[in-house]
Amino acid sequence: TLGELHPNYAATINNIGSLYHKHEDYNKALEYFLITEKIQKATIGESHPTYAACLNNIAWIHYALGDNTQALALCRKSTSILRAASIPRTHPFFQAAIQLQEELSE
Q: If 0-12 CB within 10 Å is exposed, 13-18 middle and 19+ buried, where does residue 102 land?
């Protein structure tokens, strides 16, 4: 078995969160994304681009729940990690963060 601290397990939990997000069950999505964040923080660390994408997923949920302050804070942290990792702005992780920032500025 892979165990609960394996990156593949985190990916599966993240995918479940994404399904809940798609079906607009934001509280359940947040629950799964927070589990993913905890696993990724412990396994790949806070400077990894995948961790940044996880933070952005959580930011989208906060935005959907109307917590724009938390959404913006997480989005900024996500983009900061991506910049530090030299991820190009054309990368899908970066594009998702930029899209959210645009939504929040409207």
A: exposed
CA nearest to 14, candidates 26, 31, 2: 31
Question: Cβ distance 97 to 62 under 8 Å?
Answer: no
Residue 90 DSSP code? T
Distance of alpha carbon 52 from alpha carbon 60, whole angstroms: 12
Taking the C-alpha atoms of residue 34 and residue 40, their distance in angstroms, rounded to an integer, is 10
Residues 6+ apart with CB under 8 A from 58: 30, 33, 34, 37, 74
pLDDT tens-digit readout, 17-66:
999 999 999 999 999 999 999 999 999 999 999 999 999 999 999 999 99
- The token duo for 91 is 């990368």
Residue 40 to residue 46: CA distance in whole angstroms: 8
Instruction: Tell me which of 7-11, 22-26, 65-69 is least confident.
Output: 7-11
